[in-house]
Write a structure and sequence with these properties.
Distance between the termini: 32 Å
Helix content: under 10%
Structural class: mainly beta
Mean pLDDT: 76
Number of strands: 10
C-alpha cells in the first residue's frame, strides 16, 4: 500500500501504481494512470476526494477504464462502470 500523507494532494499523469493507495483528508487526481490492486485500489480513512480522468483500474471488483470524481470517507473505492 502506498500512503498519501494527511492533507496531501497527489496529481499524477501516465503512471502505473501497484497495490493500493491510502488517503487521509487528501485529494488524489489521476490522469491516464493505471492502478493495479489485489484488493480495493484506494482506501480512505478521513474525507478525501479521488478524481480519475481516462485512467484504468484492475482489481477484483473492477477491470477497465475509470473516469469519475468521488468524495469518500471511511470507505474503499470501488469504481463504477462507465455511465451511458
Amino acid at each position: 500500500m502506498i500512503p498519501a500523507r494527511t492533507r496531501s494532494e497527489l496529481l499524477d499523469v501516465n503512471r502505473v501504481f501497484y497495490n493500493a493507495l491510502w488517503a487521509d483528508t487528501s485529494r488524489l487526481n489521476f490522469a491516464g494512470d493505471s492502478l493495479l490492486a489485489l484488493d480495493a485500489p484506494v482506501d480512505v480513512r478521513r474525507r478525501s476526494r479521488v478524481i480519475a480522468s481516462a485512467s484504468e483500474v484492475h482489481s477484483p471488483d473492477h477491470n477497465g477504464h475509470w473516469h469519475d470524481s468521488v468524495e469518500l470517507e471511511d470507505a474503499r473505492l470501488v469504481p463504477e462502470r462507465a455511465r451511458p
